[in-house]
Predict the 3D structure of the following.
Amino acid sequence: MDLPTFLWVLARVSGLASFVSLSASLLTGLALRTAVLDWAAPNRSLRLVHEYASVLWMPLGALHVVSLLLDETARIRPLDLLVPFLAPVSTYGVRGAIAIGLGTLTLEVLALVVVTGWLKRRMSAGAWQWIHRLSYVAFGMVFLHALLGGSDFNDPLVSAVTWSVALALVILSLARVLFGRLPA
């Protein structure tokens, strides 16, 4: 396998793995709040998975970004990673430029959520909760980033898993908003 192919595969695999870990973090976080998985695992186990998955996406996301920076075919510039929606449409097309911008914005929002997670004890509970809820916005953006930016959704397994996770998150989020903590 040549280097460009390796970097392309590495970018896809690390991006999908980061998406899976972010999904696991959100699903277990919602499960803690809705009690839908009380039958399967105690809250302590769910909390451990939530915390681990919350950290796991970071090195996977970093690997995704670094492999794209090194990939000469992707032509992602360091500035594209700092300033959302700066990627030129002439180079990437409208879909690609939007996908890159959403990826950059997602990275910045998730960084804010992670940093405030580490500072949780120094913040008011209300402020922390609102910032923490940006994880849902970040998930929506990373979902659109994946949908617009790559060919991975053409794979039926990848498509089925990502759409299923999105649907589960929507259902659990609505249940949480409408009903609060569900009875066990």
